[in-house]
Amino acid sequence: MNRIKWxxxxxxxxxxxxxxxxxxxxxxxxxxxxxxxxxxxxQDVPISISAYTGKFLADSGIDTxxxxxxxxxxxxxxxxxxxxxxxxxIRGIGSVSNNAIEPAVGVFVDGVYLxxxxxxxxxxxxxxxxxxxxxxxxTLFGRNTAAGVLNLRSNDPGTEFEGHVLAELGNYRxxxxxxxxxxxxxxxVAGRFAxxxxxxxxxxxxxxxxxxxxEREDLGARGKLLFDIGxxxxxxxxxxxxxxxxxxxxxxxxxxxxxxxxxATQTGLFGSSALTDDGRDHVINQDHRDRLExxxxxxxxxxxxxxxxxxxxxxxxxxxWRAETYESVFRLxxxxxxxxxxxHTRTVSQELQLLSPSGQFAEYIVGVFLYxxxxxxxxxxxxxxxxxxxxxxxxxxxxxxxxxxxxxxSPAVASEFSQSLQSMATFAQTTLNFSEFFSLTIGGRYTSxxxxxxxxxxxxxxxxxxxxxxxxxxxxxxxxxxxxxxxxTAMVKPTDSVMLFATGSTGFKxxxxxxxxASIALDSVARTxxxxxxxxxxxxxxxVALDRRLIANVTLYHTQVKRFQDRSFDGTSFIxxxxxxxxxSGVESDLAxxxxxxxxxxxxxxxxxxxxxxxxxxxxxxxxxxxxxxSGMRPHATPEWQGSLVxxxxxxxxxxxxxxxxxxxxxxxxxxxxxGNTNLNPQSMEDGYLLxxxxxxxxxxxxxxxxxxxxxxxxxxxxxxxxxxxxGAFGAIDAVANTTAQRCVLGSPRTFGLRFRxxx
Length: 760
Known about the structure:
Elements: H1 2-19, E1 32-33, E2 40-41, E3 49-53, H2 54-60, H3 65-68, E4 75-79, E5 86-90, E6 93-96, E7 105-109, E8 112-114, E9 127-134, E10 148-154, E11 162-170, E12 174-184, E13 189-200, E14 204-206, E15 211-213, E16 216-229, E17 233-246, E18 251-253, H4 260-270, E19 283-284, E20 291-307, E21 310-327, E22 339-355, E23 362-381, H5 387-396, H6 398-406, E24 413-433, E25 438-458, H7 462-465, E26 472-495, E27 498-509, E28 512-513, E29 528-529, E30 532-545, E31 550-562, E32 565-569, E33 574-578, E34 581-596, E35 599-614, E36 641-652, E37 659-669, E38 672-673, E39 685-686, E40 689-699, E41 703-710, E42 718-723, E43 733-734, E44 739-740, E45 742-746, E46 751-759
Parallel strand pairs: 7-10, 14-19
Antiparallel strand pairs: 1-2, 3-9, 4-5, 5-6, 7-8, 9-10, 11-12, 11-46, 12-13, 13-16, 14-15, 16-17, 17-20, 18-45, 20-21, 21-22, 22-23, 23-24, 24-25, 25-26, 26-27, 27-30, 28-29, 30-31, 31-34, 32-33, 34-35, 35-36, 36-37, 37-40, 38-39, 40-41, 41-46, 42-45, 43-44
Helix pairs in contact: 5-6
């Protein structure tokens, strides 16, 4: 807390001093957003929204949505032991994605919905604007936007030939190559192609097998064709491809949670322990053969047809995402029960919109959205070379170990899950412009979801598999949801430079099925969970001052989530169920200031007050079987404070067209419970941390060379924590103290490098 007070107290002091010189500064550029499905200046949109241009992303070294989360107020993007276990949250509300739970934050790229958060891990290639819309967006965006929306828009082809190339080299054998070319192909057709490839070597050292681990390679490409057919028809065809090959996240044993018993058990069974001197130094001693092979592609046709002053828009899209993860689940110095998981989702969507002319008393949009998804998760646990003797002997005795060794070894457990979803929605929203000072927006959406699913789990090695899984077959799972979501916003503009708004809105996230095996067989009722709903009230203030050299936006909000989908862990498996209600309240703000021509300052700050209103059957603490009543307690993954401060200085050299720049950034995340299990185990608390970035560069209108350092202080922090799997069998649980050994999913270490960019 002292760090954030220091950071923002000093930041605001600098702003106050420099504001006196604002008369000689240039204005801050307009940012055009499409949050209302119409193009508008972000300052004229009555939504709590942070917008980031492609230039900002490039200047800040933001390559992924996870990077962006450090800058956007009340946005978090974390991953667990599996990279596909991605959790995107706004205002503390979000869901992990390596299962069949629908996300609470919708991700849209060029108007097309990405169904799984795990599919949003790749690089941001050739972006025009990234919009972070906070609060339920259930009317216009609809599908699974109960907490908010990430609306990404890539650059379109232009009428002039242009492009750029970018090359980067850094520590950990990091490299990056990017190329973009755009221009006319004929009088009525323009094209744009963008591609980016990045890689880095292992960011951690594994003592167990004496090698570097944690490497990653990304490849992304997007092609667009824009057909301008007269004054009435425009067709945009987009094809994209993304690929990730990764050595997985770095997961260390937290020494503060380990115990002599756990350490002795590992040493006795395997000859060494996973415990190292420092639990956050990117040095591990465990089986780590993790890998991720992620591939997705998509194709969409965006058609805009003018009928008089009206616009008919059609977005037709097909997307396919496949990911294969191999994970050393138990992370011990032995080959025990590695897990292989295959994810595959294919979606087809069709959206039709009718937009009325702008500038009228009544501006409206009506539409229909059709969506079809097939999703499957196939998972298996191999026995592992070291499982049948030391593990089973320790848990079940010599006779069981012999039976285990004589049984089929690969796999020990195998499960398959699949579901099909058909969704239909109709929506309408109108804005009544009573005067240039006052308008009222009313919108509604009806959504109907029909899901069918199956789950089947077998134990080819019953001795070993029965330690943590039970055979089960549920071939006929069904879930049907229907919901109305609505929005009412009143906007007042007392002056041209000040806007006030008040919003009431609701959001909806579909129900579904538990896709993961459990230690006991579940019936169809326990394997199904209900939908989640959110209700939100906001009061917002947006202002522009000093000839657009100062922009200040502030929003107060109060959100209640009913039937929130809780994912609890029993030591061997995760089960999702509906549990009570929770409330999130707070304030978020964005501030931009250009006090003098050379200097731009950007400040983002959010405060979050969160609690469980009702949660009477929460997961027990480690070593206990007694459910907890967490009503009135603060939920996990809800930091009280988040903030970022960016200072950018550009100045020409004494002569010529060259310009030098320096850009510094601070990002703060407050104390929070980051446990993977919603039991509020005090061991899962993570102290607040402050990250610092620095960039220095030189260039002109065409070329630029820069040097950068990210995580300047080499801050060591956990982005997630989880209990040691099968902790009871390995002596990791203290049933008296209700504690267990925990694993820390590490954040990125300090990185540095050089970047060169040339535009043509």
